[in-house]
Structure formats: C-alpha cells, structure tokens
Automatic annotation (TrEMBL):
This is Phosphotransferase. Residues 221-459 form the Hexokinase C-terminal domain. Its EC number is 2.7.1.-. One of its GO terms (biological process) is glycolytic process. It comes from Wuchereria bancrofti.
Length: 468
C-alpha cells in the first residue's frame, strides 16, 4: 500500500507489537526502570534534606506557615481571592462543619493593567472585591476572614505576608517585585474606604490543593499540581526543618508541623538528574524563556509535553522513519500542544487512531501512513508515561520520608484531569516504588486555589481562636 493511503482497519486496531524496532530504539531513553526511579527518589530526598537545613539545594523547601488541616469544626463565612492568571476570582464560602457552600465570580484583568503599575492592578482587584461584596450584601457586615491564593513565586515571611520574587504568566505590574503583596491588597482596600478586609492567610495553589482535599479527608497530607506547571507540598515535622529555627516555632503553642512548599519544578536545576535528560529535554530547555531553570517541570508539565513529542517526531521524520521524510510542517515550534497528546492517547485507548490522523492533517503533514499514526501514538505514550513515572518517583519519595501508615495525596491540574491514562499509570508506579508497609490513595482536588484558600482562612481563624 502506498505510504499516503490509509487502512481504516489498521487505524482502528493499533497494535504495539507493530511498532518498528528503530522507533522503539529512538525512544528508549524515555524508558525509566524502577532502579532509575528509586535513584530519582533518593536524590530528591537528599535535596529536600539539604533545602530544609538551609544548605545549597535545587529545592527551595519554603515554609507555608500553615500548621494544621481542617478538622470538621470550622464554621462561618470566609472570603477567598484567587490570583494566578489573566482571570481572577472572588469567592464566598459558607462552612458548616463538613459542608461547604460556595459562590463566586470570575473577573478579567485587562492586559494594560497586568503590565501597568502595581497600585493600578491592586486597585482593580479592590474594585472587583467591592463589587462582589455589594452584590452579596456583605459591605456593611463585619470583616470576613480572607484567604489569598497568589500563584506566583513568593518569599513568605509569615502566614499573612510574602514578598513577590518575580512576576510570571505575562504579568509585569511595576513596583511589586520585592514587596509584600498582602500589604498591596490592604492598601488598595484602604484607599477605597468602603470595604475592610481581614487577610488571615497567603498561600499558593499547591497548598490550596492539599487543604481542599483535607476538608474531605483529613488523611490528606500531600498536595500535587500537574498542570501547565508542576509543584508539590506536604506536611513536615518542624524538628526536620533546622533552617526555620529563626522563626521560634519550637517555642510557640501551635502544632509542631507545617505544610512545606517544595517548589519541585526546579528539581534538577543543579544537574542532579542530568543522567535522565534526553537530547529532546535539552532542546526544549534551550528554546524556553528560562533555560536551565525548572528542568523537572520541563519533563512533566502540560506546558512542555507536547513540545517534547514534537521534537521526537521531527527527528524521526528527518531520519525518514515518519511521514516519508517530510518534516516541514512538524518543524514549527509549539504546533503540537499537550492537548493533542491527551486526545491521541484517549482514542488509542479506545482502539482507534483516526484522531491521530486528523491531528497530523490539521498540523499540515501530507504524507501520512497508518503506521505513521501508530508510531506517533507510541511516541505520545512513551513521553506521557515517563512524565507519570517521574511524578511517581517524587510522590513515593515524600510518602517514604513521612513514614505514615496511610496518606491521601490531593492532586489537581490539567494533565492529571484530562490525560486519559496519567492517573492510572501514576497510581500503579507509586505502588511499585513504595515500601509495602506504607499505603496511600490519590484524590482529585476540587478547586484548591478557591475553596482551598477559604479553608486555609478557616483553619487559621480556628487555630488562632483555640490559642488565644
């Protein structure tokens, strides 16, 4: 059969045994043995310990200042602000024990405000907050405790103060970097004179993910984001955190543990996992806006998985293993988004490669055979599986160091939610890597950055009242 014709029967019956040997060989560096994954876990554990001791490490191990998870006694009305992209949300959560009623509204941030001056950005947020309070007849009520999810790099100084390290995600509001973002929010509300707020917690979306799951199941002690980016946090004993001695946690009356923000996207930035990186990882990194930074994230997250697949396909086409050697269309950077990887994996799982054919035609590739479709699906599977395996190595590292008999892991993010097999591959591989005396479950988090922020506010309010 000519290479540019199709056998629908073959497209509907993808068979891994028909993947050509040279294609498998080109992808073999993506195949990670359990021994290699255990090595990754051990290296991560070493880096975490170094970070907690304040020694040079690629893992920041940042304090969240959150010392407890929900216990079901939290009650009352709480506000949440969620700022992490071009839209932001204001939410009102009414807590009645184990029930949470939530209403919220999404507000757009115009580009000129994202890139203008900081006071204008926070004035806009203050205006939207005032509108929301007016809409819900809350302007005249007592100050409600507010949790502020701020999903940008922050050096947190206590539960209610944190300095912006640098803007990301297209934001560049001047005068905010190096400043306390909570103070910016308070000042914006003070300038209005018609609303007053009580910011009781500043957090990032990973911590929110943990808290949102802990509300449903208080065995949740780990939060993981697997989306455009990736990160993880977990509950750590303060006795394992020498670098936090300066805060005097050992002398206060609060629980002697804290949620630690690992910032694991930067794992490997010091070269500690270079033995895993392929030529394709190096190319993705070299073409990114932050070369040499967030190398673990670039092997796992939704921003990069599609681009890794594309670079493999370019190489295979150049070597005449795909598309009859026609690599022009696939050579366009970012023409193969991670959504395509999920779509192809989903249809392949149903025994159908016709969606693969449609995607390749959409990109503009002309010479496509049924075996090309099979091989493209194989590359998607190999790259996705490696991402799930590396995530499993990270989660099993945290579970092993915690040494708790049973822990729930709260997970959120587009890769975990929308990739058809990621959750199952991840679960199975954690099970392979974890010591048999430890057990866990994965739980999909519901709205960590919104509901989670209000729950952090609720827990902070409860703990404060308990120790007054």
């Amino acid at each position: 059969m000519p290479r540019n014709q199709f056998s629908i029967s073959n497209l509907k019956n993808p068979d891994a045994d028909r993947v050509r040997l040279e294609i498998k060989k080109a992808c073999e560096k993506f195949m990670l043995s359990d021994d290699n994954l255990m090595k990754v876990s051990k290296i991560m554990d070493d880096e975490m310990n170094r970070g907690l001791r304040g020694e040079p490490s690629c893992l920041k191990m940042l304090p969240s200042f959150i010392r407890a998870v929900p216990n079901g006694t939290e009650r009352g009305d709480f506000l949440a602000l969620d700022l992490g992209g071009t839209n932001f949300r204001v939410l009102l959560i009414k807590l009645k024990g184990d029930v949470a009623e939530m209403t919220g509204k999404v507000y757009r941030i115009p580009e000129e405000i994202m890139r203008g001056v900081g006071t204008a950005l926070f004035d806009h947020i203050g205006q939207c907050l005032a509108d929301f309070l007016e809409e819900h007849n809350l302007k005249e009520s007592k100050e409600l405790p507010l949790g502020f999810t701020f999903s940008f790099p922050v050096e947190q100084e206590n539960l209610t103060a944190g300095k912006l390290i640098n803007w990301t995600k297209g934001f560049n509001a001047k005068g905010v970097e190096g400043q306390d973002v909570v103070q910016f929010l308070r000042d914006a509300c003070d300038r209005r004179k018609d609303i007053s707020i009580d910011v009781v917690a500043l957090l990032n979306d990973t911590v929110g993910t943990l808290m949102a799951c802990a509300f449903k199941d208080n065995t949740c002690q780990i939060g993981v984001i697997l989306g455009t980016g990736t990160n993880a946090c977990y509950m750590e004993k303060l006795s394992n955190c020498p670098k936090f001695k300066k805060y005097g946690f050992d002398k206060d009356k609060y629980p002697k543990e804290m949620i630690i923000n690992i910032e694991w996207g930067a794992f490997g930035d010091n070269g500690c996992i270079d033995f895993l990186r392929t030529e394709f990882d190096r190319d993705v990194d070299g073409g990114s806006i932050n070369p040499g930074k967030h190398l673990f994230e670039k092997m796992i997250s939704g921003m990069y998985l599609g681009e890794i697949v594309r670079l493999v396909l370019v190489k295979l086409a150049k070597e005449k293993m795909l598309f009859d050697g026609d690599y022009e269309a696939i050579s366009k950077p970012n023409c193969f988004p991670t959504k395509f990887v999920s779509d192809i994996e989903e249809q392949k799982g149903l025994g159908d490669l016709r969606r693969t054919l449609q995607i390749l035609q959409q990109i503009g590739i002309n010479k496509i055979s049924d075996s090309d479709c099979l091989h493209v699906a194989y590359v998607c599977e190999v790259v996705s599986t490696r991402a799930a395996y590396l995530t499993a190595a990270g989660i099993s590292c945290i579970l092993t160091r915690m040494q708790k008999k049973f822990v729930t892991v709260g997970v959120d993010g587009s890769v975990y939610r929308f990739h058809p097999k990621f959750d199952k591959i991840l679960d199975a591989k954690i099970n392979d890597l974890l010591p048999k005396n430890l057990d866990y479950q994965l739980m999909l988090s519901e709205d960590g950055s919104g509901r989670g922020a209000a729950l952090v506010a609720a827990v902070a309010d409860r703990v404060r009242k308990e120790h007054e």
